[in-house]
Amino acid sequence: MTITSIQQQLATPEGFAKAVTPKRTIYGVAVTSLVLSAIGIGMNLFQLGSASDWQWSLMFRYFFDAGAIEFTGSRSGRSEIWRFLYVYGPIVLLPLGIILLVVHFATRDKAGAGLYESYRQRGWIGRQLLPGLKVKNGNSEVAIAFISHPSVPDAEFEAAAQHYAGYLGTLDKKATKAAASAALKQKVLAGVSAAALAPGVPPAILAAPAQGDGAYVIVVPPDAAGKGSLQVLPIKA
Predict the structure, then answer these.
(1) Is 191 left (phi over 0), alpha (psi -120 to 50) or beta?
(2) pLDDT along the chain (237 residues), means of 10
(3) Are residues 130 and 103 part of one domain?
(4) Which residue windows are transmembrane per the record (predicted)?
């Protein structure tokens, strides 16, 4: 896959929609709500089943009764709080998740069309190279990529990524951790100029979380008024 072939694919709204999927917070919240609902329902059934010797008539009768089980011992207060969450949490989260999913699918095409227009106005196709930096994002590690800009020649972009990779290779474990922490302070997870991590790098080059295994990504910066956020999205093969 070359930039020329990608440009041809992304030249039409239909081709763009097949190759690029907008990142939407609403979808993540919907899925999280449904997963938490399933966990709550499962734990509620498990507690009721354990207490009633799996008598389903009793389990269904007390399914919405947080006080149906009495806890004893030093951790009874904490157990009662969790019981309350298992019973009443899904009542809120399940319909919320369903509503958000409906909204997501109902507005997905509009969001995709908006992203396409933003790409046409101010976006570009960038190469991503991984210099070897990884940072923490919650409980997981995220690989950081250098992402090219049309104003920077390929040779200069590759040299910048290789130079930073070489620098990282000279660091011991403590210094590598410090470099990752410094990158987080620069908000690298949201995408920043690579010059914030490696002074001397052309400021047009970006540093952001790597997107998939492909060599190319879509980059859509905020508009001229600063509205919106930087988006770096993978391109489907």
Answers:
(1) left
(2) 85 88 84 96 94 91 89 82 93 95 84 87 94 92 95 96 94 94 94 93 95 92 82 88
(3) no
(4) 26-48, 85-106
